Amino acid sequence: MQIKVSVLCAAAATAALIFIGSYGDRAYAPAQAAGMEISHAGMGETGAPMNAPAETVRNWHCQKCRTHVQSPGRPSAGYCPEGGHHRWNNLGVVGAIAYQCRKCNLTVESRERPSSGYCPSGGHHQWNRLTR
Asked: Among residues 52, 67, 85, which one ends one of the domains?
């Protein structure tokens, strides 16, 4: 007898330890050893469902050390070379338009004008759109 199991998580499929009961001295058997078929139907290479929306990548800027990072989520506060932990500002969604701050010279590629937020050179960023 074959039973088909669709797995929604690549990690779960890798572990594939869906056990089939135990009787007396018989040990549990992994699903595949028990004749079950594991299917990755509808899964992308990363293990995420293929119809899942892509994460929005954002521009992040540390107030202290001026590091610029592009990431879908807030980067790790970790160790900041300027002491303590990073203080990340979300400047907005990454895009194809280049902007540069007149005050601190930070250049980012953004979908629209980045957040003026905190500028390490004092006050708020003053963004100029760059032409290509």
From this structure: 52
